[in-house]
Design brief:
Structural class: mainly alpha
Order of helices and strands: HHHHHHHHHHHHHHHHHH
GO molecular function: symporter activity
Protein name: Transporter
Largest sheet: none
GO cellular component, one term: membrane
Number of helices: 18
Strand content: under 5%
CATH topology: Hydantoin permease
InterPro entries: Na/ntran_symport, SNS_sf, YocR/YhdH-like
Number of domains: 1
Pfam family, one: SNF
Shape: globular
Number of strands: 0
Distance between the termini: 49 Å
CATH architecture: Orthogonal Bundle
């Protein structure tokens, strides 16, 4: 394996993995999903799923990837040769492909907003920001242009490899994300009426919970950790043996939870202060941000900085999706990374066009009552990610050699035998049973 296909440091791997997890899921999708599913109760269930199920599965993906030392498809083949288990890697590549096809559409929205904010074309007196969002997403030319530019950036960075592309970008972008988020939170909570939004976000009302939004909370926990589609299997295949996998996975999970907390505290105080609806949906963030910055000195400047930060977060996540696709087709037949990245990016762009047009010319085209964008989101977030996590839990609990699993779990750390047995028990019993129960309950079977 080439030297630039290894992480140069532990912090580089952790920040890149956090970047894969912390992106649109935490900043864009999490706030509106929380708003549409009851606020504080949804957030509490999300945190519980993240710690009890998501974190152990993230550890499992890291173990599979580093243990195999190769990308996702070949990793499952290595530990279960000539068996059906290899389909988990293919499932992951397909999931990453579909996820990126609609994810990059939203990335295009962010890119367009960023470009408009720099010359001061967003914040205006008596502006209707909901109408502005509708105008931008309602233009086929604008949304397709945004999608194309996001894919082009991804192709360039992934073509450069791990150290020179993804790792260098993540080391700069992830710290900036936290700094600017803290600035936005400070601004948000100073609005009159902001505390009502804080209470909505942090005060649980369990009467608003039902089987459907519990499934959404499970899917959201997997979405935000980027588990279930073996992205982290590919990332950890570039990881050296002197890094503690539980420590690295715990660091990524903690950063993830912190960012969702900051996102909620940045968004919901503004929503309630300006009388907006927390159930606004995918456009929530693009309406709330201009409102938040419009009433402060140098608001346009701060909006531009935050949108650039938002764009950075989008890109660090999308890098991981294109990487798993590129790695799968590069390693198999030693193809050129640059050529594979270009072809994969081009194909994702083409498949993403219907999702991009879901807010304009294809708005009336429905799949089971959902637009192409929403249907793809539902398929990936609520079916493919949980199912992928179930397959991974079963693989590591019942198929992979336990001695290899233990060796990877305990390498470079002083965790006790009991810690390993507890985690292993979660993978064999708690994780599969929980995922199956949530699935069956959401379908009304139990």
């Amino acid at each position: 394996m080439q030297s630039n296909q290894k992480w140069s440091s532990k912090i580089g791997f952790i920040l890149a993995s956090a970047g894969a997890a912390i992106g649109l899921g935490a900043i864009w999708k999490f706030p509106y999903m929380t708003g549409m599913n009851g606020g504080g109760a949804f957030y509490l269930v999300f945190i519980a799923f993240t710690i009890i199920i998501g974190l152990p599965i993230l550890i499992a993906e890291f173990i599979i990837g580093r243990g195999a030392g190769t990308e996702a498809v070949q990793a499952y083949n290595k530990f279960a040769p000539k068996s059906l288990w290899s389909f988990i890697g293919h499932w992951g590549v397909a999931g990453a492909f579909l996820l990126m096809s609609f994810y990059s559409v939203v990335g295009g929205w962010v890119l367009i907003y960023s470009a408009l904010s720099i010359p001061g074309l967003i914040i205006k007196e008596n502006a209707n920001y909901a109408e502005l969002f509708a105008q931008i997403t309602g233009s086929p030319l604008i949304v397709i242009l945004g999608l194309a530019l996001v894919m082009l950036i991804n192709i360039v960075v992934v073509s450069l490899g791990i150290q020179n592309g993804i790792e260098k970008a993540s080391k700069v972008l992830m710290p900036l994300l936290f700094i600017f988020f803290i600035v936005l939170v400070i601004r948000a909570v100073t609005f009159e009426g902001a505390m009502e939004g804080v209470r909505f976000f942090l005060q649980p009302d369990f009467s608003k919970l039902n089987a459907e939004n519990i499934l959404y909370a499970l899917g959201q926990s997997f979405f935000l950790l980027a588990v279930g589609i073996s992205v982290m299997v590919t990332y950890s295949s570039y990881l050296s043996k002197d890094v503690s996998i539980p420590f690295a996975a715990g660091s990524v999970s903690i950063m993830n939870i912190i960012v969702t907390l900051l996102a909620g505290l940045a968004i919901f105080p503004v929503v309630f202060a300006f009388g907006l609806e927390p159930t606004e949906g995918p456009g929530l963030l693009f309406i709330v941000l201009p409102e938040a910055f419009s009433g402060m000195p140098f608001g346009e400047l701060f909006l531009s900085l935050f949108l650039l930060l938002f764009l950075f977060a989008v890109l660090t996540s999308s890098f991981s999706m294109l990487e798993i696709i590129t790695a799968a087709f590069t390693n198999k037949k030693k193809r050129s990374r640059k050529k594979v990245a270009f072809l994969a990016g081009l194909l994702v762009f083409i498949v993403g066009i219907p999702a991009a047009l879901s807010s304009n010319v294809l708005a009336e085209f429905k799949i089971f009552g959902l637009t192409v964008f929403d249907a793809t989101d539902f398929l990936v977030s609520n079916i493919m990610l949980p199912a992928g996590c179930l397959f991974i839990a079963l693989f590591i609990g019942y198929r992979m050699d336990k001695s290899i699993v233990k060796e990877e779990f305990t390498a470079a750390n002083q965790l006790s035998q009991g810690s390993f047995q507890t985690w292993y028990g979660i993978m064999r019993y708690l994780a599969p049973i929980t995922i199956i129960i949530v699935f069956l309950t959401s379908l009304g079977i139990i």
